[in-house]
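Researcher: Please predict.
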Amino acid sequence: MTALVARSPARYPSLRARSRVVFSGRAANWLNAGWLNKSRNSPNRRLKEWVVSHLQFERWLLDSEGLSGEQQRALEAHLEACPRCRQMQAGMRGVEALFGTLDLPEPRPGFARRWEMRLDAYLRAERDRRYRRQVGLSLFVLLVAVVGLAVVFTLQLVGVTAAWVDVLVGALYRLFAVLSVLGAWQNLFSILWKAIGHWIPPVLWGSLFAMAGALSALWLGWLARWVTLSRRVSL
């Protein structure tokens, strides 16, 4: 057995100023053979191989119907040598036999019809709750908006140092102004209506009213059909 002391800082930068023992000849062959046998025959490696093969046989036990002939023979050979897998197979067969002896209860007559009625009632109640929730939220938003506008209008109407008499007089003045504006708009619309009545013949008026009625009927029919289709889809 010979041992050589090599110094090669250029080839091995991490071994600068250090000595490295290099074995050659029979010593190197014996040493490499020992490490190889140790890695092959380590307990962890054997345990890992046994666990992998055992898990494969357990999977075959759980799915024994889809095994080939070779796999079935390998499984039977493993069961003869492994008491744990034999116990697992016996337990599985016992559970299957227990399920075979149980009497499964059958539903009472009319179960499907009752279930459909309950589902229909639940969907209707859910739709009503959703509608009430939307209406309540809309009313709440509207109430908040009205209160906010009332507060803003009140703050604008009532000054910080204004007296109640001045506030009342200002409110009456604004009311009369609004009424006068409304009266002017009413007079304007009445004049326009009379002018349009003179310009448009009665036949055209009848045609316009008939067209408006037909469009309203079409819209109502489409709305009713849409509601019916939405109910069918929701059910």
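Model: The helical segments are 26-40, 43-62, 69-81, 83-101, 111-157, 164-199, 202-234.
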